[in-house]
Elongation factor P (Flavobacterium limicola), 188 residues
Amino acid sequence: MASTSDIKNGLCIKYNNDIYKIIEFLHVKPGKGPAFVRTKLRSLTNGKVLDNTFSAGHKIEEVRVENHKFQFLYPEGDQFHFMNTETFEQITLNKNILDSPDLLKEGENVMVSINTETDLPLSVDMPASVILEVTYAEPGIKGNTATNATKSATVETGATVNVPLFINEGDKIKIDTTSGNYMERVKE
């Protein structure tokens, strides 16, 4: 058993007969009244996000997890196939367990959290950013760059990302996997 002082991002807990992963947390100590912890929890079974508040000192049941490095092989409908880079064992995960499946490129390495009690995969942690090639983008019109104007572009995985007007087809761009936003153009 852990308490609210042990809460951190990425911690997996049992709550309301389900397993949740803590996405965000904030320790709050108001001037009047007891301290509490405001959290955002994501269910690892259905992907729903839940806002919850724990009072200070509240006991929470922690789920033991191991993180293993897996390589993404290929998608097949709503199923995504991964291979353990150490044992070469292959697993198949449902699309809803992934944070941003549309930004996952074949051959990309991810960290998979596995429940040590049941040996079932709980979540997939993507790298902080990915570099993808733009396959389709409307041409930018000269003179439209006075403001931070953006246009929609399609990358090699099929995802649509808002990018600045100067991005063209064939450019490689860095994308933040947590928000899905454009970060920068990558020169090779």
Q: What stands out?
A: The longest strand covers residues 65-76. The chain has three domains: 11-55, 65-125, 129-185. The mean pLDDT is 86.
